[in-house]
Amino acid sequence: MKVTGADTVQRLSVEDLSVHYGGVRAVGSVGFTVEPGESVGIIGANGAGKTSTLKALMGLVPRSAGRIRLGEHDLTRVKARDMVRHGIGYVPEGRHVFPGLPVEKNLLLGAYSRPWDKDTHRQLEEVYALFPVLREMRERLAGALSGGQQQMLAIGRALMTRPRLLVLDEPSMGLSPKLVGSILDVLRKLREEGLSLLLVEQNATLTFGVTSHCIVMENGEIAMSGTSAQLSHDPRVREVYLGL
């Protein structure tokens, strides 16, 4: 099964990214990389700047400064709607599925940047293989799905773009531990396929379980970074983010 464009994965480079809302700095000079096939997590408390960092990366909020590159392509001035054409799939916080459309049409809309042809339907079958419950509910309105099913739908819709990099914002929000485990299993499978992942989460346990490297943000800045294994054993991280 190949639901991604992982065979053409490229390096993401973010340099000196800054975001201001009015006169208030939300993110200040943040920089990091996601190497081909690497999975990177960003953790931090509410208001740490995690989501603002992702939204600025995707062009959903204005950047005060910074440069973004994917492989040889400079994406700094690329509009949000065109990021998918450069191989970045985005799963937003809150899922944002189309509630009045059936599951299958939600998924097909994820392939809007390509012609709907045999390849599109083959991709659809691969997403259904990854999320069998979506196949069972393909004719049901997305608004009638549970929170966990909507999260699966949001991930499946992003995978319909055949991304080189999958960006996820708080995928575990509002989900039961069992469903969080299911999402974790899917992200691990995608990682094993070689897809690059950038994951923002408050759930540090989930983040450490699926990523190879992690960034800790505080007050709009990077406070710590390292391998997920290293940070998961750091006394301060264990106390603040793991409750140990």
Automatic annotation (TrEMBL):
<dbReference type="InterPro" id="IPR017871">
    <property type="entry name" value="ABC_transporter-like_CS"/>
</dbReference>
<keyword id="KW-0067">ATP-binding</keyword>
<dbReference type="InterPro" id="IPR003439">
    <property type="entry name" value="ABC_transporter-like_ATP-bd"/>
</dbReference>
<keyword id="KW-0029">Amino-acid transport</keyword>
<keyword id="KW-0813">Transport</keyword>
<comment type="similarity">
    <text>Belongs to the ABC transporter superfamily.</text>
</comment>
<dbReference type="GO" id="GO:0005524">
    <property type="term" value="F:ATP binding"/>
</dbReference>
<dbReference type="InterPro" id="IPR027417">
    <property type="entry name" value="P-loop_NTPase"/>
</dbReference>
<protein>
    <submittedName>
        <fullName>ABC transporter ATP-binding protein</fullName>
    </submittedName>
</protein>
<keyword id="KW-0547">Nucleotide-binding</keyword>
<dbReference type="InterPro" id="IPR052156">
    <property type="entry name" value="BCAA_Transport_ATP-bd_LivF"/>
</dbReference>
<feature type="domain" description="ABC transporter">
    <location>
        <begin position="12"/>
        <end position="244"/>
    </location>
</feature>
<dbReference type="InterPro" id="IPR003593">
    <property type="entry name" value="AAA+_ATPase"/>
</dbReference>
<dbReference type="Pfam" id="PF00005">
    <property type="entry name" value="ABC_tran"/>
</dbReference>
